[in-house]
Design goal:
about 35% helix; 7-stranded mixed beta sheet; about 180 residues; 4 helices
Length: about 180
């Protein structure tokens, strides 16, 4: 690899990493991490305009990360809510703690030697008795890869794992006493 190409790749890496947005967390009320929660339900994410093989693995990894760190919280278990929210009895749902979310805005910009990738996600944490979320976490993720060093499938997987981890970390942080 020529020195010029190496320096260009290095500069691009610093720019992409340096300009990457960080998660934004907004609270809409008081979330008591000391409160014992028997279950926290997880609603499958709504994935709009993302590759079909991208959204489901992120959701599954998100749930895996939550379960791996559950003992740091006072949550008894994280349970995937199998039904669509529209099918769930509203009187039951308003009594539960649950997380819902969206993944959208997936963009790939390919050049001759590399591809830039971006995606956005937002999750909401609802507490019992509230119709509005107590917590909102917005996570944009940007990454790039050089075509001679990786494949699009590998780069998507890496970016998806990063997104799932950042979303789970934000929830765990708020639920840790």
């Amino acid at each position: 690899m020529s020195a010029r190409l190496f320096l260009t790749s290095l500069l691009t890496a610093f720019l992409v990493t340096g300009c990457a947005a960080s998660p934004k967390v907004r609270s809409f009320g008081v979330l008591d991490p000391k409160l014992e929660r028997e279950a926290l339900y997880i609603v499958p994410f709504d994935a709009t305009l993302v590759p079909p093989d991208f959204g489901d693995p992120i959701f599954n990894q998100f749930v895996d990360y939550l379960n791996a760190r559950r003992k740091q919280t006072r949550v008894g278990r994280f349970v995937i809510l199998k039904e669509d929210l529209k099918e769930v009895e509203p009187a039951w749902l308003v009594k539960q703690s649950y997380v819902s979310g969206d993944i959208w805005g997936y963009v790939e910009s390919s050049g001759c030697c590399s591809t830039d990738m971006k995606v956005k996600s937002r999750i909401y944490l609802y507490e019992p008795g509230r119709n509005q979320p107590t917590l909102e976490v917005f996570v944009p993720v940007e990454d790039f890869f050089e075509h001679d060093r990786s494949t699009i499938q590998s780069a998507r997987s890496k970016m998806g794992k990063k997104l799932a981890r950042e979303l789970a970390d934000a929830i765990i942080k708020k639920l840790t006493p």
